[in-house]
Amino acid sequence: MLSYRHSFHAGNHADVLKHTVQSLIIQSLQEKEKPFLYLDTHAGAGRYLLNSEHAERTGEYTEGIARIWQHPDAPEQLNAYLSAVAALNPSGNLKYYPGSPLIARHLLREQDSLELTELHPTDYPLLRNEFLKDDRARVARSDGYQQLKAKLPPQSRRGLILIDPPYEIKTDYQAVVDGIREGHKRFATGVFALWYPVVLRQQIKRMLNDLQATGIRRILQIELAVRPDSDQRGMTASGMIVINPPWKLAAEMEAVLPWLHQQLSPTGTGHTLVKWVVPE
Ligand SMILES: C[S@@+](CC[C@H](N)C(=O)[O-])C[C@H]1O[C@@H](n2cnc3c(N)ncnc32)[C@H](O)[C@@H]1O
Q1: Which residue of 1, 4, 101, 111 is 20 to 30 Å from 44, comparing CA positions?
Q2: How far apart are alpha carbons 164 and 168 in whole angstroms?
Q3: Which residue's alpha carbon is nearest to atom 8 within ligand 1?
Q4: Which of 116, 95, 101, 89 is nearest to 22 (CA)?
Q5: Peptide bond into 153 cis (omega under 30)
Q6: Could you report the per-residue pLDDT of 136-191, keeping only the tens digit for each?
Q7: How many CA atoms lie within 13 A of 4 on its CB side?
């Protein structure tokens, strides 16, 4: 089933959290000259037109990236992320939103490489076209979970693996844990970053329990909620689970999350969280 289209949601509060974490990890990996691999298992279309019918129908970006991208008081931890957004919108009007592959493309260096997979028949060609002239990138229409076996470990022995499925099928909550177990078996020192939505809190608790049961250590949880948990329909929060986070990441997110929460939930509902699920 491939009914999910990220174009309805691009630039929403969940993307802001995900792409902030992604860009901070990339910056940390770049503190060393050695190259690294950026592997994006569920890459999406790459670029999203914000005045498209899809984005305008939900208007989610108006309560996400639109609130922060030109904010004069944006904390420095957002610089890299917001520079990728600005690079796509040189006119100063917010027309396009960069998905995770375009954020990586903007931040990665000559020596780094990208492996991107996307299954959707419409989004895959859009993604491939974005990278036609980029020698650092390989784009494939294949199952992202398989890449965790096929592409790891990378030759460089350094890397960020972003796992960002749509969770449109319930089995995704188990598939991400199985995929991480496989990936970690092959590349125990890699940085794995898994995005999750909070729709039903119980699903996330179960997923975290399953992750703990793998025996993998150094698991950090980062969460941004714009509403309290609810048993009604809809996403109230989202989070990132980061395995082997760069040493600064927890402190950086603790510094930036209160500001992000203030902008993205102006009435103050919801919460933020930075917590070790499994320490060293
Ligand atoms: C949440 S979106 C990705 C957004 C993107 N990572 C970003 O941050 O800009 C999830 C994507 O995964 C794709 N997808 C679903 N199942 C997949 C699979 N098994 N392998 C690869 N891609 C898949 C969907 O078509 C969708 O475009």
Answers
A1: 111
A2: 12
A3: 100
A4: 101
A5: yes
A6: 999 999 999 999 999 999 999 999 999 999 999 989 999 999 999 999 999 999 99
A7: 17
Q: 160 alpha carbon to ligand 1 midpoint, in Å? A: 16
Catalytic residue among 164, 210, 229, 231: 164
C-alpha 124 to ligand 1 mean position (Å): 10
Structure tokens at 32: 């060393």
For residue 69, the 8-state DSSP code is T
Q: Which residue type does 187 have?
A: F
Question: Nearest CA to 65 among 27, 25, 9?
Answer: 9
| Number of the ligand 1 atom closest to the C-alpha atom of 15 | 8
> Between 100-107 and 13-29, two packed helices, what is the crossing angle to 10 degrees?
30
Residue with CA at minimum distance from ligand 1 atom 9: 99
User: Which H or E element spans position 184?
Assistant: helix 172-186
- Asked if residue 213 has pLDDT above 90, the reply is yes
Query: Rg (Cα) of the chain, in Å, rounded?
Result: 17
Question: Looking at the chain, how many residues does it have?
Answer: 280
Residue with CA at minimum distance from ligand 1 atom 6? 43
Which residue in this structure is represented by tokens 């995770």?
Answer: 100
Residue 16 CA to residue 23 CA, distance in Å, equals 11
- 48 three-class SS: strand
Choose one of 8, 118, 138 to mutate for the ligand 1 pocket test, by most ligand atoms within 8 angstroms of C-beta.
118
| 164 in catalytic set | yes
- Please report where in the chains the tokens 């809190």 appear, as a residue: 201
pTM above 0.90, yes or no: yes
